[in-house]
Amino acid sequence: MRKTSTVCVIIVAQERYVGCGRDCAQGDDEMQLEDYFDFLAPNDIRLKAHRIGIETILLDYLELGLFPEDIVLRYPSLSLEQVYATITYYYHHQTKIDAYLREHKEYTERAYREQELNPSPAAKRLRELIRQRQEAGYADLPDRVFA
Fold first, then answer.
1. To 5 degrees, how large is the angle CA 104–CA 58–CA 105?
2. DSSP run (H or E) holding 16
C-alpha cells in the first residue's frame, strides 16, 4: 500500500506560494511558483528535476479529467505539490499555456503523421509480423504499432 503525506499549496500575494508536507503555517518553504519548473525553451517547460513536461500533467488534468491525486498515481516520481503547482501555474498563465498546449498537440500530430509515412525498420518488421499473425487467425492483435 502506498503511503502519501499531506501536501498543501497556499496561494498568497504576488504569486508566492508555500508548499510543504507539514504545518504550512510555519512559512519556511516560501518559493516562487516558477521555481517548480525548468524553462528549457519557449515550447519546453518541465518540472524541475524531472523529464516530465507540464503538458503531460495538464493534458491528464484538462482532457482526461483526472484529479491531482490520480495524476500522482500515474507518475509516482511526482509529488502532489508539484502537480498542484503545475495546475496553479496553468490558471495563472492560462492564455499562454493554452497556446503552449495547442503547439504541443500540433507537433505531436505532425510527428505521428511523419512516423506513419516513414516508419522505422523496427516498426515495419512489427507491422509485417502483425499482418502475418492476423492472416494465420490471431484476431486479438492490434492494427497499429506505436514504434
1. 20
2. strand 16-20
The packing angle between helices 54-62 and 94-117, to 10°, is 100
**pLDDT tens for each residue of 92-139:** 999 999 999 999 999 999 999 998 899 889 988 998 998 888 888 876
> Whats the size of the chain, residue-wise?
147
What residue type is 60 in one-letter code?
D
Measured between alpha carbons, how far is 145 from 58 in angstroms, rounded to an integer?
26
Task: State residue 46 phi and psi, 5-degree precision.
Answer: -125, 160
Rounded Cα distance, 55 and 45, in Å: 8
d(CA 95, CA 93): 6
Cell reading at 4: 502519501
The whole-angstrom separation of Cα 18 and Cα 8 is: 8
The four Cα atoms 69, 75, 102, 113 give a dihedral, to 10 degrees, of -140
Residue range 59-75, pLDDT digits in tens: 999 999 999 999 999 99
> Which of 132, 121, 126 is CA-nearest to residue 144?
126
CATH numbers and ranges of domains, the chain: 37-134 (1.10.10.10)
